[in-house]
Each structure stands twice: as structure tokens, then as C-alpha cells.
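FW: tagging you since you asked about this chain on Friday. Here's the raw sequence from the shared folder, copied in full. Didn't touch anything.
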Amino acid sequence: MSQQQWGSPPQPPSGGNWAQGRPPWQGGNAGWGGHHYVPGPSQAPGPWSNPAGQPSGPGAHYTPGPRPAPGGPWQQQPPNQGWQQPSPGPWQQAPGSWQAPGGNWPPPPRKRSGFGTLVKVVVAVVGVIFVISMVSPLVSGFRPGGGASPTPGQSNGPVYQNEDYVPPAVSKSPPPVPGPKNLDAAHQLVSDNPLYSQTVPVPTNCKMSNTKPLQQMSPKEKEAHFNEQVGCLMTVWVNPVEKSGFTLPRPPVYVYTSPIKTACGDFDSVNAAYCTADQRIYYSDELLDSLSSEAAQGRYAGELVMAHEFGHAVQARTAILMSERALETDATTKAATQELSRRVEVQADCFAGAYVQSVARSQKLTSADVANLKKVTYTIGDDVLSGKEGYVGGHGTGKARQAWFTRGLEDAQLGVCNTFTAPPDQVR
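HL: got it, structure written out here
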């Protein structure tokens, strides 16, 4: 099939004074495969209204409708990489040689039987055991790394971060998405955002009630599953966002089965997107099935898409997304606009990697699972989707998207996800 760009954006508005009143980039949408400019406020549905032609509320099952013609080949040719975790090197002793002083030395003494030595060793071991038995009650509450020892009935598992956090309910009236006051502020917010000085908590305890493969879930089950995953995403991201001086309301997820109208425009039957106009995440039930890549059918592929879209929500709530929109509007060439778009997209890939790093242990992701997720990020590159080597689009090459996902996967410090100060060749 021909190339299918998820959520290909219409032409952005030209001209206009975005610094006064509602800017033309206000309320845009950034999707898994693209982002949209949205119609004016008179055309958008009210906050938390139902997508046109579809029932409302999480868990709703949408009725299939007419589908557009499918798009282009989805190809997979990624390198097979594993989860590259740093491993501690072996303990090494500094090399050296024993230099005996010169001179004449008496002959060595005659060797004796080792029986006496063995007796001494046994006595010493018994003594050590006795001391430990006397001291252990005094230190029973201590363990390496801090914290008390597990009490009977507790497992000796990892110490999860942010364990006491309870994700809030979906916000039906989320505060407006913040944006820059002017172009100078926009440049500052994308390149030196306070979010970049934060770290994600590792590990966090993500608990999912439905553990069967995503491909076996109905649309309603997928919607419930993804909304539950958003709770895990909130656990990972709430502290970094709030410590940066912003708020993070919980967005809902809607799984749809036919093309729909949203506050960010029309979404076709193969798409995934975060919409800033209503602060919802939309996910097509047919999305993964549209990929010819075997990697897309692997474990946690759908959850990776959701983590990417939630990455756009993080960008929106920290003013990165709206600042990038302002800079796109001010750009004078298509190449400059596409580069800004790519910086947004690969940053969401990096944020997705940070999330996977945080929940990998509690979700029992193996090195093979994570290697497969790297393949997924490769298969959605512009060049891979188009089948044209060297093709430059608005989302990033397979190599670039995989590289930024891996950065987030291997470092909890969010400064590694600052794509807006990266050289252009790293965000192609």
C-alpha cells in the first residue's frame, strides 16, 4: 500500500499577529505520526464534548463507518539491538610485582602439616558465626541501599519510586494549555525549559489489570487498558512537570474504529494523536494492524504509542508544544518548519523511552521486549514509511527516532531529551 502518514497536517496559517489574542497555532495537535493545526474556536466542540458522531466517555464502543483509501508501504529493516544497560565492570586489583630486597637470605623453613592451620580456621569461623548471631538482632532493620529489611510475608523486591502517589481522575475541565508571550519566550521555552533539569523516577510500579495481548482486546477493552496506562504515565511524569512549575491534568484516551471529527480536525481510520484543543488522546483501533512490521505486533508496542502521545501532553503542559507552534508560524521556509516539527516528534520519542525505562521492571519487560520497541521506533521513520532512503519529512528518520527513544531509555535525566539544542543532523 502507498505511504500512510498519520495525521498529516494541513498547510499552517500564514501571516497574522499571533502575539495578540488567540494565536493561529493555539490548540494544535501533535500525533504519533504528525500534528494538526486546528480550526478557530467557533468550529471546535466545547470542552469535553463527544467527538462528532461518536458516543462519549471512556469505554464507549464506536460504530465503524466509511474508511478512506489506505496509504503506503510500512517497511521494517531495523537493526536488531538489545537493551543496552551499563553493567558494572569486574573488581580489579592494581597490577604490580613483589620485589624482594637483595642480600643473602636463610633457607626457608621446613613445611609443616596443615592440620593445625585447619583447626585454627574452624575455630575462627565458629567464632564469627557466634558474633553474628549476637549482633544480628541489633541490625536486623538495616539493609544495603537504605530502608528496613522485609518483614515476613514481604518480597525482597525493588524499592519503587513515587509509590504513595494516587493518579487523579480525568480532568473534565483542564486548565488552558500554556504558551509563550512572544518569540523570545518561545525560543527560551523550547531550548531551556525547566523540565530539562528534572529526572523521571526509576523504577515505578505500574500495575495493569488486563494483561492479555493488545491484539486480543476489543476496542472497549483497549480504551480501558490505555486509560489505566495513563495512570502509570501520570505516576512517572507528575513530579517532573510540577517541579518545573507547571500542572499536569490527566487526559482521557478515546479508541475509535472509524474516521471522526475532533476539536483538532478530522482523524482518519489509522491515526494516534494528542489534541491540544481538548487535551485528549485519540487512538485508532486499526493502528497497529496497519503496520506490516512484525515489531508492531510485539509486546508493549501499543503502550509505546500511548507513551509517545502522552509525551506530547507533557510538551503541551510545559509550554514546549505551543512555543514550537509559534516558531513554526514564524519560520520562512518549509525546511525550517519541518525541522521544528521533527524536534517535537523525536522529543516525544525520547519521553516515551524515559517512561519505558521507569516501568520496565514492574511491567516485566525483557531485553528482547525492549529491543523490539526500538525496532518499532525505527519503522515509523519518515524514510522507512516512504520507502525512500534519505527522505526528509516532519517526523524524523528511523535512525533518528530510534536514537532518541534509546536516549530516554538509558538516562533518567530529562536534559538528554532536549532536542531543540541538538545539531540538525541528529534530528533528521
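FW: The chain has a mean pLDDT of 75.
HL: agreed, and DSSP finds nine helices and seven strands in the chain.
FW: great, closing this out.
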